[in-house]
């Protein structure tokens, strides 16, 4: 999602995970945002003021009484300036202070004046024993009850002290995704959307399968965009390498490697859905028989024939079982007679719209981060989009078909 023109305020407290924040700032700036930073004094033991100032391009607010402050009320003006604030890492100390409304330094006074007015995301990070402390858990429950504030769950894994447990700050990409959730218009709130993504794998024997080049990037971009806009997403995933970010658990992932497994998962989910976007590259055929042993080549064998049987067509079956009000959007990946083929699929499968991408277009289709698509609706309307990131294509599909 583009963050052009957005103002993001980052609050940093004194935990080891503070060393990751310059990376977050760089990523936000790359997405077009302007970033300002407020910290506790202790945070500057873990990441230097000079680093934060250099990557954000602005002075860091860390001392309420410093002479360099532009004026004496940064803790009021920064929350007024920002569109969203993230506190990362949020230590046990900061969570306890926040929940009690304590405001005794640059960061806590800033948080105190921000929470009632702007979206605030909290990313706790601490030792697992501290996270389990009943006072800290109580503080998190209190803060989660506030209207503008969302608290991310810490990740499980190796902690700074060398042990393993729940307490790691989520990765930078997840923090950015959480910020984007806070800024996205909630146009899909209350909707349930089914998305298929990735390529199917059709087994031949225990070591081989038939598949295609889909990485899941387009499907993941759609799932992220729908979840950000407030939808509950059910994502049926074939084989895919694209990472799925799910900061608030709005995306339910079902792994279904073969076309038949994907068909079963989609047919079960469809009656509860408001819409479906079918982006997966599904194999039309599967091996008629799956050998239980590895198929060996015999001495002198020059060729082999594999018998294939037709797979169920998921889009077609969802189209047959579509209830009034449900919207069904397909994709068409073509190499020739693109528009004619896409329109024929739209009609045959009873789709409301189809997204056409052609392998003849540079930067479109499998594996790349961009796509060039035409949006074709059953009512005859069509729109050709320029080469865009897959994330921008996803936003456009939502704006055009899911309003
Ligand atoms: O994953 P990426 O690397 O980012 O690549 C994205 C993509 C190229 C896979 C994606 O943009 C795309 O075009 N997906 C659909 C590919 C495809 O299989 O198109 P198709 O023309 O063969 O199928 C038409 C529609 O019917 C699709 O919505 C497909 O999901 C669906 N279908 C097809 C066969 C089948 N048995 N069941 C289906 O539901």
Please tell me the total number of domains.
2
| Fraction of helical residues | 25-40%
Global morphology: elongated
Per CATH, what is the topology of the largest domain?
Rossmann fold
- The rounded distance between the terminal residues' Cα atoms is 18 Å
Widest sheet: strand ordering: 12-11-8-13-16-17-19-20
Largest sheet: 8 strands, mixed
Quaternary structure of the protein? single chain
Uncertain segments are: none
In CATH terms, the superfamily of the largest domain is CoaB-like
CATH class category name of the largest domain: Alpha Beta
How would you characterize this protein structure?
- This protein has 403 residues and is an alpha/beta fold.
- It has two domains: 177 residues, Rossmann fold; 210 residues, CoaB-like (Rossmann fold).
- The chain has 13 helices and 21 strands.
- The strands form six sheets. Strands 12-11-8-13-16-17-19-20 form an eight-stranded mixed β-sheet, with helices on both faces.
- Strand 16, helix 12 and strand 17 form a beta-alpha-beta unit.
- Helix 1 packs across helix 8, helix 3 packs across helix 5 and helix 4 crosses helix 7.
- It is elongated.
- The protein starts with 6 loop residues before the first strand and ends with a helix.
- The relative contact order is 0.09.
- The structure holds ligand PMT.
- Ligand PMT binds next to helix 9, helix 11 and strand 16.
Please give a quick description of this structure.
This protein has 403 residues and is α/β, with parallel strands linked by helices.
